[in-house]
Amino acid sequence: MKRRTFAKVAAAGILAGSRSKSETPTGIIRAYLTQAQLEGAVRPDPPGVNTRWTGPGSATWKIDVPLGGEYEVALCHACAEPGAQLVLSGGKSRIETHPRTTSGFYANAANNYERVRWGDSLRLPAGPTELTLRVSPARGKESLWLRSIELLPVAAKPLLEAEDRQARKARASTDWLVKSGYGLMFHWTGQSKPRHGPAKTYADAVREFPVKDFVETIQETGAGHILFTVNHAIPHCPAPIVSWEKYHPGLTTSRDLLGELAEALAKAHIRFLMYINSPRFGKMAGTGPGEFSPDMRDSQYVDMHCEVLDEIGRRYGRKLDGYWFDSWYQSFERFPRVRQDRIFEACKTGNPDRISAFNFWILPVCTPWQEYWAGEVGEPGPPATSRYVERGAGAGLQFQSLLYLDAPWVHSRADTEMEPLRFSGEDLTRYVQSCMKNQGVVTVNLGIYQDGTIGPQARELMRSVRRSIRGS
Questions:
Q1: With CB atoms counted within 10 Å of each terminal CB, which end of the chain scores lower, N or C?
Q2: Reduced to 3 DSSP states, what percent helix, strand and coil does the chain have, rounded to the nearest 5?
Q3: What is the dotted CATH code of the domain comprising 171-470?
């Protein structure tokens, strides 16, 4: 099949000299398959962030090369069956490789994405250049799923290595997360529905949320930490955050539910982290359909995050232990010059020990400016083999895997019982224990009704997990 889109791909930064508040210093060019013209037996794979190769095919990009010279090449891909031949050409250069089988923490081999260095380099001229990848998979095999080609200017390697060292040095300790062992996540949003009867407005639901009962429920499960949504599909915020109201008027609340949760959880010695869906937050009010505001620049996206994170950090201080930012692979694709170090720094406002994860889903993470792997694995699979991810999407970060037990993240069906459990207490206990043995961490998303209660089956299952792991 053919896909006729044809887009320019810009370098993610500059190579030398001063940089603006939005520009990275590395000069990496990321050629995403969503930006390529595709020919042959290759098609976008849902949800449209990568491509699946079922036979011979090609992908072609128009790229802007900031500085001519040697560029190292990396594949961000998953490979279930080795044997394919890949040929990449750009300028007057041409290199070949045969990808190996990739590995990671997913039962489905097609989800085990890695960033793998090509070994050879391309010599590219400065300015507009055409880049073409040709793939010849082994006959009869769907052997390759490709997210992007990354081109790293050899001249910029010292800058990239220095930034990586700086980011690692700036990371806060994850010792408390390791000590927690396992925790819970709750997608309580404007789409959450009650178990019985009509749904309340979001403002009314926030006003009536039973903090005391909710925290007591968490204590029953033995969870050492929780992740709670600030926003999800709709950019609501259950607190009077002035900067949030500035960008999303009418979508904050007078009750500071986040603050009350932070206070109550701190008294119960349960760590508190906030979930923020960055693309939805970055969608400014009144700008029409789509994940992002169409005219938003990289610097605006960074500034919005920094402004809100600074206010949240000052407001909650040491009672806020961390963040989990969703859909960051979309943010990086849309805003290739994002100054991730500025957002990382803003995450520390009010608490230098606060930790953060930026979710690149199953795809290789594109920034060292974070402490732990977002780990959206969905269900128990291969457990942690060490504290820090050794291979796969989250290589180098603190291992943390995120599962969902019943509801598909949000319980959004009105007047219905909670969705069935997806795995048993025995399977979950075994997985958590295996991860904890190697200083890995597990977070389990529980479906939650609009009134702040959870499903009775999940409640009983988590009680059994507590008894097995906590011993009481």
A1: C
A2: 30, 30, 45
A3: 3.20.20.80
Tally of CB atoms within 10 A around 357 = 27
Q: What are the residues whose beta carbons fall under 8 Å from the beta carbon of 300, sequence distance 6 or more?
A: none
d(CA 13, CA 199): 47
Q: Give the C-alpha separation, 364 to 376, whole Å.
A: 12
Domain spans in the chain, listed from the N-terminal domain onward: 8-163, 171-470
Closest CA to 372 of 280, 439, 301: 439
Q: Residue 13: pLDDT band by 50, 70, 90 thresholds?
A: very low
Helix (H) or strand (E) holding 435: helix 425-437
Provide the 10 A C-beta neighbour count for residue 267.
10
The DSSP secondary structure of 132-143, one letter per residue, reads EEEEEPPTT---
Where on the phi/psi map is residue 439: left (φ > 0), alpha (ψ -120 to 50), or beta? Answer: left
Residue 185 near residue 273 (C-beta atoms within 8 A): no
109 versus 397: which is more confidently predicted? 397
- Residue written as token pair 């590995």: 103
- pLDDT by residue (tens digit) across 137-163? 766 566 789 999 999 999 999 999 999
The DSSP letter of residue 320 is -
CATH fold for the domain made of 8-163 = Jelly Rolls (2.60.120)
Q: Are strands 50-65 and 8-9 parallel, antiparallel or unpaired?
A: parallel
**pTM of the predicted structure, to 2 decimals:** 0.93
CA 154 to each of CA 68, 157, 167, 211: distance values in angstroms, whole numbers, following the listed order: 10, 5, 20, 54
Q: What is the pLDDT of residues 360-384, one digit of tens each?
A: 999 999 999 999 999 999 999 889 9
176: enclosing H helix or E strand: helix 175-180
Neighbour tally for 201: CB within 10 Å: 9
The full length of the chain comes to 472
Judged by DSSP in three states, 201 sits in: coil
